[in-house]
Amino acid sequence: MPKEVKIYDTTLRDGAQSENISFSLEDKLRIAKKLDDLGIHYIEGGWPGSNPKDMEFFRKVKKLNLKAKIVPFGSTKRADSSVEKDRNLRALLETNMKTVCIFGKTWDLHVRHVLGTGLDKNLKMIEESIEYLKSKDLEVIFDAEHFFDAYISNSLYAIEALKAAREANCIVLCDTNGGSIPFEIQRIIREVKKHIKTPLGIHAHNDSDMAVANSIIAVRTGVIQVQGTINGFGERCGNANLCSIIPNLKLKLGINCITDEQLKKLTSVSRFVSEIANVSLPTNMPYVGESAFAHKGGVHVDAVLKKAETYEHVKPELVGNYRRILVSELAGKSTILVKAREYGLDLKKDTPETRKILEKLKEMENQGYQFEGAEASFELLMKKALGTYKSFFEMKGFKVIVDARDGELIAEATVKVRVDGKEEHTAAEGNGPVNALDNALRKALEKFYPVLKEVRLSDYKVRVLDEKRGTGAKVRVLIQSRDDKSSWGTVGVSENIIEASWIALSDSIDYKLMKELSP
Q: Of the given ranges (174-188, 312-326, 464-478), which has the lowest mean pLDDT?
């Protein structure tokens, strides 16, 4: 097993091939900066021969003065052109980067049916392309496309293709179809090393859900470069997920691929890339997901509080994540006590107050409430049960109408609130009934509490709780609000979606005022 492994990120190229992801030039530059902060060794910026945006990226990224090697991607020369005149190779050189990555065919099936050229001709294309780029004093990485399928189909030709690439600085064995499994990867790499002395890398896709495992076993078998993407973004089922590979290499195999301080940035980088890509991350993603270190069952919570390793395989702080004690009908008194401490409340395990909160919690969850992701609502619930809650406003009534005007649907909400004996009756429009209600409520209250001008609704989700009841089913509305400093979640449940939304909105405003104005 190697002592050092280089991390090669291809989020900006391979990751952008996800069907629901499209990065702007500015997006790519911002992500590149974050990847550099994380300690990534190679950042693949795109394919300059394919579009002007990628070429512009290589011009502008130089101004960022990144420590990472920025890599343009391309293919071997075309069969009908010389290396000097090949448009793709010329585009790589025009980026003025010191490292380039090209891919070539190693599977005879592809050579015959996709390239439509002879097997020997393909070997010449690989060899001549690498020799030409090396003659320009470049570090050359060769991606051996479809290599594992190629080896199984025709091992002799697959090895010949690697021999044609032997002058490259690193030959990366690609599981392009993502169908290999770890023991195949290990067996084939061992065979390759008998014939090839050039340093090897691994590039795995996730079509059989084994990309991370294949990458790890490849390292165990001696490869010195691992390619992948942040959050596993990529075409079809995605690429090998660097957010799992990096901590597995460092924490499980003891390979210092990045520093301890850089590893602490992993979760924030994962979520940053997700936000820029406008893709919601699975909450159960290992290491960096919101649920990766979340504990819900009372037995689990009790054990974790006594000894964290009972239910945590690593310390969440190592990867920049944190432990979450969730609140649910499965929770016991230990959960309540932990949450109380978070909110500055002094509770004991066997007091009437603790039992009261637990009973109220279970009663509300029986109605359909869940407080995962809505901990602001839970804090309000606790303080109401303890009698420490102060009401900042009283809702006297609201009305929401949706009107068709000139071919457009316009929502209008009217609210009446009372603050310190004074009533305020206000209306506001919005692009939907919930948006209108949010606008009207804050408009009514900003007169009394100017601090609410900072608040904005950042996310809104609706879950139907009993689909069999059709339009009469209860719905659970989860709202995420934020200001310039933090964000918080609130929840409401009702058979009426507007009422459920109102409950969550009201809690959101209450929570903000409690944080800002309570002594």
A: 464-478
Asked if residue 165 lies in contact with residue 171, where contact means CB atoms within 8 angstroms, the answer is yes
Burial of 186 (0-12, 13-18, 19+ CB in 10 A): middle
Give SS3 for 262. Answer: helix
272-311 pLDDT, tens digit per residue, is: 898 788 787 888 999 999 889 988 766 777 788 788 888 8
Q: Which of 241, 212, 278, 223 lies closest to 24, judged by CA?
A: 278
Question: What is the dihedral angle through the alpha carbons of 438, 440, 441, 446, rounded to the nearest 10 degrees?
Answer: 110
Asked if 115 contacts 123 with a C-beta cutoff of 8 angstroms, the reply is no
Classify domain 394-517 by CATH architecture: 2-Layer Sandwich (3.30)
The pLDDT value given to residue 317: 93
The count of other CB atoms within 10 Å of the CB of residue 471 is 7
> Could you tell me the CA-to-CA distances from 332 to 309, 352, 368, 487 in Å, in that order?
20, 14, 19, 27
Tokens of 473: 């089913």
SS3 249: helix
The answer to whether 140 touches 97, Cβ cutoff 8 Å, is: no
The 3-state DSSP class for residue 108 equals helix
Q: Where are the beta strands (DSSP E) in 109-252?
A: 139-145, 170-175, 200-204, 225-228
Q: How far apart are CA 436 and CA 369, in angstroms?
A: 24
Rounded alpha-carbon distances, angstroms, from residue 14 to 55, 79, 233, 286: 16, 24, 8, 21
How far is Cα 204 from Cα 71, in angstroms, rounded to an integer? Answer: 18
Report the candidate in 383, 387, 386, 332 with the shortest Cα–Cα distance to residue 362: 332
* Dihedral, 395, 396, 400, 405 alpha carbons, nearest 10: -110
Strand partners, 429: 412
**How many Cα atoms sit within 13 Å of 20 on the Cβ side?**
12
Compute CA distances 323 → 145, 289, 392, 402, 481, whole Å: 40, 11, 32, 43, 22
Task: Say how far apart CA 20 and CA 1 lie, in whole Å.
Answer: 37
Buried residues in 200-221 as b, exposed as e (16+ CB within 10 A): bbbbbbbbbebbbbbbbbbbeb
Q: How far apart are the first and last CA of the chain?
A: 58
CA-wise closest residue to 497 among 434, 452, 449: 434
Q: What residue spans define the domains of the chain?
A: 6-277, 294-366, 394-517
- Residue 77 CB contacts under 8 Å (≥ 6 apart), including other chains: 83, 86, 88, 89, 125, 128, 129, 132
Q: Which residue carries 């109220």 as its tokens?
A: 360
Is 6-277 assigned to CATH 1.10.1520.10?
Answer: no
The predicted model scores a pTM of 0.71
**Other beta carbons within 10 Å of 264:** 16
**Structure tokens, 197:** 């002395």
Q: Which amino acid is at 419?
A: V
Structure tokens that stand for 386 in this block: 């303890």
